[in-house]
Amino acid sequence: MAIKQFELTSIDGKRFSKTGEKHRNIRIDHNSTVTLIVELNDREASVDFRFTATYSGLGVIKIEGNMVYVGDAAALAKKWSAEGKMPDNVASEIHTTIMNNCIPEAVMIARDVRLPPPIPMPKVSIKGKGAKPSSGMEVA
Fold first, then answer.
1. Is the dihedral of CA 61, 108, 93, 29 positive or negative?
2. Is residue 123 in a domain?
3. Domain CATH for 35
């Protein structure tokens, strides 16, 4: 099982607020959805998807695309047509591929439309004098 080809077909980023407006407690939700699975041959299936990063009333980023899944394509397409579901191991691989490719793209789009990056930002803490050094990364 593998992903042979991955391409983006549509990118949309919108900010609903004006520049300079202050917002607190911005919630960013990520969602990946498979919209269509079509068998290309007995070993390959075309998988259409949509990735969405929603910023609670502040904006939205939508990315659509397509990938070619290599594996038991006939069984995958048949289960998708009948139940609208995929086997768990296949679903995990497909959604991981979507997230791994779309989140970096969404970060760049967020920068362009002036939204916060759709990833958790690291917390930086500066320890005062007399604090014990930790074994973690040092920030100055």
1. negative
2. no
3. 3.10.420
Rg (CA), the chain: 20
Please give the model's pTM, rounded to 2 decimal places.
0.80
Q: Does residue 72 sit within a domain?
A: yes
CA distance 60 to 41: 36
The 10s digit of each residue's pLDDT in 85-139 is 999 889 999 999 999 999 999 999 999 999 989 887 555 555 655 555 555 555 5
